[in-house]
Design goal:
This protein is about 40% helix and about 20% strand. By secondary structure, it is an alpha/beta fold. It has two domains: about 1-155, P-loop containing nucleotide triphosphate hydrolases (Rossmann fold, 3-Layer(aba) Sandwich); about 160-275, no CATH class. This is RNase adapter RapZ.
Length: about 290
């Protein structure tokens, strides 16, 4: 059985992730108390389900604290297990709850929304490092759907997945980054009127950046640093390493760097490349 567990903060996009998996043919269960997880997995396995997704979060009560031990127990059995933790910055969560007018699960009595978010973050902090961490702040729903599809496409137990992520510093540091590189000091294609509407994936931007000696020098320095330390991260038995590269807007320089490094390290580990500030290419599906 392939089991995907989803957790994270309220308002971070768990319902979107679960819907992606439902559309992909997974048997999905939302808002399951962690206490019932072993029984559910056993029952579904007996009934012959081969793909299941379960959302467990603060709505299930105090039993969510049992999840780390339950994951260890589940990994000892004959199943493929992936754990996805969705997160978002406080200001993003406040905006989403304000727009949807939904009540936060911990907004009880005189508690404010900000206090409820802070309390939830505290209660779930031990879950953040249990699997793949995605910061959904400033991310469009279609982009999140694409990232979830990439995540479930990874084969569990196949070693380290190296994820290169571009972002714009004006949107803030991504919460899911393990390593952060700042390329704002490099020449900016934004100031060229012909390059401004393009992205770091477009050939004219590549040609502009690769004509700058300082771009090539920083690119090679970052690649050398990652190459030197990647074996240590692999020995640490990590499943995911997220390397974030930031420029001002997240459209040109950081995108170019993420794409280049993704190609460079394809032979070293399973590689994913994602861009926080530009939309994924259209797939043609509705």
């Amino acid at each position: 059985m392939h089991l995907v567990l989803i957790s994270g903060l309220s308002g971070s996009g768990k319902s979107i992730a679960l819907k992606v998996l439902e559309d992909a043919g997974y048997y999905c269960v939302d808002n399951l108390p962690s206490l019932l997880l072993p029984q559910l997995v056993g029952q579904l396995d007996q009934q012959g389900y081969d793909k299941c997704a379960v959302a467990i979060d603060i709505r299930g009560g105090e039993s969510v604290a049992m999840l780390p031990q339950q994951l260890d127990a589940l990994r000892a059995h004959d199943l493929q297990l992936q754990f996805l933790f969705l997160d978002a910055k406080n200001e993003t969560l406040l905006k989403r709850f304000s727009e949807t007018r939904r009540r936060h699960p911990l907004a009880i009595g005189d508690s404010t929304l900000s206090e409820a978010i802070a309390e939830e973050r505290l209660r779930l902090e031990e879950l953040v490092e249990l699997g793949h961490h995605i910061d959904t702040s400033d991310v469009l729903p279609n982009t999140l759907r694409d990232w979830v599809r990439q995540f479930v496409a990874a084969e569990p137990g196949q070693g380290l997945t190296l994820l290169f992520e571009s972002f714009g510093f004006k949107h803030g540091l991504p919460l899911d980054a393990d390593l952060v590189f700042d390329v704002r000091c490099l020449p900016n294609p934004h100031y060229d009127a012909q390059l401004r509407p393009l992205t770091g994936c477009d050939l004219p931007v590549l040609e502009f950046l690769e004509s700058q000696p300082e771009v090539l020098r920083m690119r090679d320095d970052i690649a050398r640093f990652i190459g030197d330390w990647l074996p240590s991260y692999i020995r640490d038995s990590r499943n995911y390493l997220t390397i974030a590269i930031g420029c001002t807007g997240g459209q040109h320089r950081s995108v170019y760097f993420a794409e280049y490094l993704g190609r460079l390290f394809q032979s070293h580990a399973r590689v994913l490349v994602r861009h926080r500030q530009i939309a994924p290419p259209a797939t043609g599906s509705a």
